[in-house]
Amino acid sequence: MTEETKLIHAGRDRDPYTGASSIPIYQVSTFSQPDPEHLGVYDYARSDNPTREALEETIAVLEHGARGLAFASGMAATSSVLMLFQTGDHLVVGRDIYGGTYRVLTTLFKRWGLEVTFVDSTDTDAVRKAITPATRGLFVETPANPLLQITDLRAMASIAQEHGIMAITDNTFMTPYLQRPLDLGFDIVVHSATKFLGGHSDVIAGLAVTRTPELGKRLKTIQNSFGAILGPQDSWLVLRGIKTLGVRLEAQQRSALQIARWLEKRSDVRKVFYPGLERHAGHAIHAQQATGGGAVVSFELADGPTAVAFLKRVKLPLVAVSLGGVESILSYPRTMSHAAMPSEERQARGITDGLVRLSVGLESAEDLIADLGQALQV
Ligand SMILES: *Cc1c(COP(=O)(O)O)cnc(C)c1O
């Protein structure tokens, strides 16, 4: 079955109890038990809810995994996965992972004795060298935010296998429609379903998928014990979003490539970062592990004041954090995602004050280009 068809029919494509074409929102906390000695499949909705379960089955099929689990947010999914480790365990983590993941590792999990070494995961040798006898996990993200750096997923999976450690990746920017890390040897994939999977900027949600049933069982125990579950309404919104993921991403990445090429030609744009451009660093590796460039393009303007003036003049895209919605969203790393990072560190990493990130939505590329063009005019 093709990935397009799976988006419509994967997992539970209709309600098994009524045949309803849309999985009902089971707004419920508890389930009546006819036999008090032998409880049914559903007993209490923290453990299992049919709406959440439909989403969990769907994401497992889409990621080619054994088990999917839905959480209250992307960070709840990531944090629940990190609870698979214990005090004294060492993790090797990509330097350019999502800011919230960096924060939870360097504050909460640090207090609980999880040791972390951050490395540039685009440098496979550096990752290999960072492994110690205490290393139990490797956590990377590709393309990374906001410069869309590419990490070689096959190389990461083979390092993890060599050392018998768990390989985890955040697949939010690609979604399983474009990239399936479990097929490349990863053990766990996490998502902020808030972004492309939900797709409409109307829900906060997280997902995790494991390659093996055993790991799925361990993570399910954490989900049920810690309790950061996704509610039925929000599960339904993500299920609905997933049905149009293919057509949305196809259209959004077509526009993204067109916009990236247009930006490349402008003399007032210093640099363009987009994995779909042939001259993007890591383009060849990306093309071997993903089937498209995605819908996020970053570009660098002359300096901070120029970027701020541009963001104030732009009319169509929202100026906001987040990405992956049907509406285009422009983010400013300096004051948004990377505000907590010291200025020198930001500059050293290439996140200059002139850098902006565009999540391309479903508006026509022509209208977006016209709007970006007028906003760039000084
Ligand atoms: C937004 C995001 C997260 C966090 O997800 P929430 O749903 O906001 O908790 C994690 N990883 C990436 C790559 C993200 O973009």
Give structural attributes.
single chain; 378 residues; alpha/beta; Aspartate Aminotransferase, domain 2; Aspartate Aminotransferase, domain 1; five-stranded mixed beta sheet; 15 helices; 12 strands; 38% helix; globular; binds pyridoxal-5'-phosphate
Task: Summarize the structure in words.
The protein has 378 residues and is α/β, with parallel strands linked by helices. It has 2 domains: 3-243, Type I PLP-dependent aspartate aminotransferase-like (Major domain) (Aspartate Aminotransferase, domain 2); 245-376, Alpha-Beta Complex (Aspartate Aminotransferase, domain 1). Helix content is 38%, strand content 15%. It is built from 15 helices and 12 strands. The protein has helices spanning 3-9, 50-62, 74-82, 99-106, 108-111, 124-130, 153-163, 175-178, 213-226, 232-243, 245-264, 283-289, 304-313, 343-348, 365-376, and strands at residues 67-71, 90-94, 115-119, 135-141, 166-170, 188-192, 206-210, 271-273, 296-300, 318-319, 329-331, 355-359. The strands form 2 sheets. It has a 7-stranded mixed beta sheet with strand order 1-7-6-5-4-2-3, sandwiched between helices. Helix 2 packs parallel to helix 10 and helix 13 crosses helix 15 (365-376). The longest helix has 20 residues, at 245-264. The radius of gyration is 21 Å and the shape is globular. It starts with a helix and ends with a helix. 47% of the residues are buried. Pyridoxal-5'-phosphate is lined by residues 73-75, 98, 100, 141, 145, 170, 172-173, 192, 194-195, 204, 206.
